Amino acid sequence: MGAGSELRKILSQRLLPLIAEIEELVYRYGYIRVFGSAVAMLGTAGLLGQVLGIAWLRTTFATAAAFLFVIAALVSFAGGQKQRTKLTNAENILHGYADAMHTESPIVVKEWRQDVIIEDNGDAYCRRTLILDAAANGKPRYVSINLVYYGAGPLTDRARRRVVCKAFHAGAENSAERTRANATSTWKTARNGKPRLDVYVHLGTFVQDGDLVTVEWVWPKYSADLMSGAAPEAFDVVFDKEVSSFTHRVVFRNIRNPSLFTVRNQGARNFKKETQGRDVIVEFSATHPEMNQQMGFIADYTRNG
């Protein structure tokens, strides 16, 4: 038996049970309590060693407390990562089943409206509102919507975590009296290879005629490449479910020189562009749009002329 095998055997027999015990402590009492206990041990050992003048006591217990702290931190981090991975896998499975389900009376979207505000630093606020037809047959209902990131660079995990998304549900009789809706989300890849955030809004088993579903995103640096002049950006919609009518409106804020901000229509109907002060507003709309037909525009900002 080689030295490596012998070392692994010793670690398996001695270290792994200790890590398992620490993992149990972290699970039972939480990382903060375990961390506090380690700090208390460190302080007590240092105090006793100083008072009694025993150097080895101070050194031994300080080393043990530091070791416990490091192991507890690693266990806590690994445990959190494990739970996040399990949650993500579970949500992906549920979303896969949801996408594959076909009901006898799917939800009909009577009106689809999206309003986007792009700040001059590239931060984006997006609000999408859906007006639904009645679907009160007691079956679980949901609507799925998505937003695609068109940035030229990669979308890092940190950037994804900074995206904030909220969903709301309101009745037709009073759209201002909206309540938070249960929503789950998952990151996927769009047909053009770009990152796409899919949001599933769970509506329960009773949907009335005229119900409003609103989803709001706050996406830092969503259009940073466009607003810095680094690259153009696409703004488009593609429907894979029937929609009676839609309106897409984008406001580009604080454009210093609107003459340098250009847009190119790409299959959008009722297309218009206007300038209000230093804001450039682009809008397009249609009734009964064709499914799987891309509609939108390309925006370009040549800040340097």
Description:
The protein is extended and about 85 Å long. The longest helix has 46 residues. The N and C termini lie far apart (72 Å). Helix 1 crosses helix 2, helix 1 packs across helix 3 and helix 2 runs antiparallel to helix 3. It has 305 residues and is α+β, with helices and mostly antiparallel strands. It is built from five helices and 14 strands. The chain has an eight-stranded mixed beta sheet, with no helix packed on it. It has a three-stranded antiparallel beta sheet with strand order 3-7-6, with helices on one face. It has a three-stranded antiparallel beta sheet with strand order 9-14-11.
Q: Could you provide a short overview of the structure?
A:
The protein has 305 residues and is of the alpha+beta class. Helices cover 34% and strands 35% of the residues.
SSE layout and pairing:
Elements: H1 3-29, H2 31-52, H3 55-100, E1 109-118, E2 124-132, E3 141-148, H4 157-161, E4 164-171, E5 174-180, E6 182-189, E7 195-204, E8 212-219, H5 224-227, E9 233-237, E10 245-252, E11 261-266, E12 272-276, E13 279-287, E14 295-301
Parallel strand pairs: 1-10
Antiparallel strand pairs: 1-2, 2-8, 3-7, 4-5, 4-8, 6-7, 9-14, 10-13, 11-14, 12-13
